[in-house]
Amino acid sequence: MTPRCAVAALFAASTAGCGGQEETRPAESGPASAQPAAPADSLVATTPGGAEIWFTLAREGTGPDGTTCTDRTLEIRRGARRIPVPLLYTGTAPEILNDTTMRARLSDRCAPGDAYLVDLRSGRPVRER
User: Taking a C-beta distance cutoff of 8 angstroms, is the pair 128, 112 a contact?
Assistant: First the structure.
């Protein structure tokens, strides 16, 4: 056994707890431990060329008046290829402009913010001026 493996084995044994058994904590119960399930991916739009636009990841937001909302990221799908649109959470469905571009509004505290033009081939968003 190499010295590196011996150290790894010693560390694993020391973290397993007394008698070589893993420590377990009782599961928390009640409303404090319950977290809402993330929304499922959902198809939002289809381009004339056949690409599909999906809502994927989600985050909860809070507006200035205390109302809550769910903002979603976008993903472009063509067959097995999936292209995530980076850094753009939106609360509204995007608008398909043509075969290569869609417009999506950034969500800012549960309100539509700046509009972005998203390249449907690369997923790259560029703020619309």
Answer: no
Q: Which helix (H) or strand (E) holds 13?
A: helix 3-15
- Per-residue pLDDT tens for 51-94? 999 999 999 999 999 999 999 999 999 999 999 999 999 999 99
Query: Domains in the chain: how many in total?
Result: 1
Question: Is 126 strand, coil or helix?
Answer: strand
Phi, psi of 52, rounded to the nearest 5 degrees:
-110, 140
Q: How many CA atoms lie within 13 A of 27 on its CB side?
A: 5
Is the CB of residue 66 less than 8 Å from the CB of residue 58? no
- State the pTM of this model: 0.70
pLDDT digits (tens, 9 = 90+) for 82-129: 999 999 999 999 999 999 999 999 998 899 999 999 999 999 999 999
Range of the domain at 96: 42-127
